[in-house]
Amino acid sequence: MSESNLFDSIEKALISGDLDTAASLIAKIASSMETDAETIHLLKTKIEQVRTNIDNIELLYRTAQKALEHDDPDLALSSFSEILRIIPDHEQARAGFQDARRYKDLRDQINDNLQKVYDAQMKGDFQTAKEKCKEVLLLAPEHEGARQLLKEISEMIAKRRLMFQLMESGKRKYQEEKFDEAISNWEKIADLDPSNNESKEWIAKAKQVIKKRKQDLTADSILRNAQRALFNRDYQQAIEILTDFPSGSSLHIDADVIRRKATVGLENQNLQKDLYQKISKAISEGDLGNADNYVRLLMSIDSESKIAENTRELLKEYDEKNPS
Questions:
Q1: What are the residues whose beta carbons fall under 8 Å from the beta carbon of 279, sequence distance 6 or more?
Q2: What letters, b where the CB count within 10 A reaches 16 and e where it falls short, cover 60-72?
């Protein structure tokens, strides 16, 4: 084999990493041909460089493999690229680079869809979030994070659907004046989502109506009793009954009317009592003129009162004792 062919064989052996063959060929050149020392030195230097590169390549390859195992395709790509820079025809590195590129593209698609899931959740758009989760699982069926997210989002959609049904049912019950049933529905919403303000507002509204209804029932009973006392001219009792009247009742105008009538009635009653005393005194003193004036004034106030009746009895008694 000529010297030129030997050098070509050495170069091929070095490129392929076949260091034993390269060393054997170099030894053959040194023993059988006159080769200058500089050429031999350059060949040996080349061998050492290749040895170093092989060590580096092995380290880079292990690094790339571990990077893929630990979900770091960027590091894997840079490691495979460095191997290909050293040995452009390194088949395993080229295949690994392509795998890492596909893995990175897949990971980027997954991360992009997951970000869309989170964005949709933040906006309360759980249907879009669910669709994006499904897209992730189409790309990576075993993606545990996406599976868990899909489960949580599906549960949230079901919960929101239930909350909507409870809210609408509660509103219907409210319109039907079935306030306790309406409140029961809205309280279930509050249990499902304590931050739901709409259900709290409806609960407060319904309870206020119930409270007002109870107040009106109480007020109506009080008004009936006060009206009965007023009819019986027991004005003091009517006023006392109204002291328990609930201030928030919508029947307060009726209560005010009865209270005013009872107050006026009590004042007139006291005035009649005073006039009755004056009539009695005038009659006992024989002052019939003043007695007659007092009687007319008393009767003009309330001729149907008990005091008016007593006055008529008093006058009748006087007439019987003093016939004209």
A1: 291, 294, 295, 298, 311, 314
A2: bbebbeebbeeeb
Half-sphere exposure of 237 (CA within 13 A, CB side): 11
- Which residues, other chains included, contact 112 with Cβ-Cβ below 8 Å and sequence gap of 6+? none
- Written as six digits, the tokens of 303 are 């001729």
pLDDT digits (tens, 9 = 90+) for 56-101: 888 988 999 999 888 898 999 999 898 888 778 788 889 999 999 9
- The pLDDT, as a whole number, for residue 90 is 82
**Mean pLDDT confidence for 268-272:** 91
- C-alpha–C-alpha distance, residues 241 and 237, integer Å: 6
> What is the residue whose two structure tokens read 């016939």?
323
- Alpha-carbon gap, residue 215 to 286, rounded angstroms: 57
**Mean pLDDT computed over 113-141:** 90
Task: Determine contact, residues 305/271, Cβ cutoff 8 Å.
Answer: no
With 70 as the cut, is the pLDDT of residue 187 above it?
yes
The whole-angstrom separation of Cα 166 and Cα 164 is: 5
Distance CA 86, CA 56 (A): 9
SS3 sequence of the chain: CCHHHHHHHHHHHHHHCCHHHHHHHHHHHHHHCCCCHHHHHHHHHHHHHHHHHHHHHHHHHHHHHHHHHCCCHHHHHHHHHHHHHHCCCCHHHHHHHHHHHHHHHHHHHHHHHHHHHHHHHHCCCHHHHHHHHHHHHHHCCCCHHHHHHHHHHHHHHHHHHHHHHHHHHHHHHHHCCCHHHHHHHHHHHHHHCCCCHHHHHHHHHHHHHHHHHHHHHHHHHHHHHHHHHHHCCCHHHHHHHHHHCCCCCCCHHHHHHHHHHHHHHHHHHHHHHHHHHHHHHHHHCCCHHHHHHHHHHHHHHCCCCHHHHHHHHHHHHHHHHCCC
Tokens found for residue 199: 């259900």
